[in-house]
C-alpha cells in the first residue's frame, strides 16, 4: 500500500468545508459570538471523525491554536568578541576567477581550543589540571558552532558559500573539522572570522549537581510529575527554569563555545595532484565509524578517554536529555517511563566520545543538485550495476497500479503486506550483492552466468 496516497474527491470536499468553517470560526471569535463558535466546533468534530473513518492520519489543525511563545535573546555580540566585517550579499556560489581561467578553492581545518598540554598520544600531561568539563561541553555543542561559522562566513564573504566538510576526532578526543570550500578568500579574513565566531548555549546553568545516581527524583502518579525523593516537592521543569531566566537581566549563557587559535588555510587548484590528495583526505572517513577512529594508542590515553567519557555522561546533550535530572531540572518531554539521569543519546556513548550525528557535512548547492536529483542518481547507478551483471528488472508495464480504497475486500491483510515488502527488499538486496560481486570489466557472456542464480533465488522467495 502507498501510505502517501492521493486524497479522494470526498476527502477534499471535507477538507475544503473545514477550511471554510475555520474562517467562519475566526470571524465569530472576533465578533464574540459564543453560540456560533460552539456550533462550528461540533460540526468540525463530526468532519474530523469522518476523515478518520476514511483512513486519514495525522493531527488536524485545532480551531484555537495555542500561540507558541518564542524566547527572545539578545543579538548583541559579546564584548570580548571582535566585530565581523560584512560584504554585500550576492547569489553567487563560486569564488573569484584569476587570469581569466583559474578559479581555486580553499581547504580549511578548524579545531577547538586547548584544555591543557597533551602528549603525542593525546593523553594530558597533567590530568588533574586538564579542563574536562569544558572539553565535554565543547564537544557536545561543536555542531552548533560549525553552523554559526558557516552563517558568519556567508555574511562576511557576501556569497552563498558551498562546502564539503568532514568531522574527525583528534587524539585528545576533541573534534576538528576539515572543510573544502568552493572559491577563495583572504587568509586574514578567515582567521578574523574564526576568532569572531562563537555559540552561546542558552540553557539552565548546569555547574552544580543536585542529585546523584541512586538518589534521583521519582515520578508521582498523583501530581503526574517528578518530585524530590526527600521532600516530595515538585522538581522544576526545563520550561519553568527558562521562564525564571527570562526575568533575570544581564544573564550569562550556560556555556560559550569557540574555535581554537590554530587555523589552517590552504589554496587548492582543481585538477592538480594536491587537489586529489585533499579530496582523498576528505573522503577517507566516509566508510569509517567513530569507534574505528577513536582508538587509544596507550594505557594513559585509554584512561584519558574514560575520564572524558565520564564527564560526557554528566553533560546534557539536548533539552530532552535525562541527564538534566542531575542538576535539579526535569527535561522536556519527561514522563513516567523516563529514567532520571540516564540518556541513551550518542553523545554519552564511550565509542563516540560525544561525536554524534553525521560526520560528513555537505551544503545544499555543493553539487548543484537537490535531494530528488541525488536519489535519481543513486537509482540510476544501481540500475546500471544490475544491467552490467545481466540482471533485468521485473517488467511491470502490463500492470495497472492504483491506490487501494478503504474497505477494499481485495486488499490482503496488513501482516501479509509487511512480509511481502520485507521479502521484496531482501530480493532486491540479494540482486545488488550479486551484481557487486561481478567484475565490472567482465564481458556480457560471463555476466549472464549470474542470471540462473537470481532465478533460483526468486523461486525460493516465492
Radius of gyration: 29 Å
**Total number of helices:** 13
Number of structural domains: 3
Total number of β-strand segments?
A: 9
Task: Give the class from helix and strand content and strand pairing.
Answer: alpha+beta
The largest sheet, given as strand count, sense and whether it forms a barrel, is: 5 strands, antiparallel
Unreliable parts: 443-462
Global outline: globular
Binned strand content: 5-15%
Average pLDDT score:
84
Head-to-tail CA distance between termini = 20 Å
**H/E series:** HHEHHEEHEEEHEEHHHEHHHH
Oligomer: single chain
The neighbouring-strand order within the major sheet is: 8-1-3-2-9
Helix content: 25-40%
Written overview of the protein:
With 462 residues, this protein is α+β, with helices and mostly antiparallel strands. It folds into three domains: 9-53; 105-362, no CATH class; 371-461, no CATH class. It is built from 13 helices and nine strands. The chain has helices spanning 9-31, 34-53, 132-140, 142-157, 187-196, 238-246, 273-283, 290-293, 299-312, 371-388, 414-437, 444-447, 451-461, and strands at residues 105-111, 163-169, 175-181, 198-201, 218-220, 225-227, 255-258, 263-268, 360-362. The strands form three sheets. It has a five-stranded antiparallel β-sheet with strand order 8-1-3-2-9, with helices on both faces. Strands 4-7 form a two-stranded antiparallel sheet. A two-stranded antiparallel sheet has the order 5-6. Strand 5 and strand 6 (225-227) form a beta hairpin. Helix 3 crosses helix 9, helix 10 (371-388) packs across helix 11 and helix 11 (414-437) packs antiparallel against helix 13. The longest helix has 24 residues, at 414-437. It is globular and about 70 Å long. The two termini are 20 Å apart. The model is unreliable at 443-462 (pLDDT under 50).
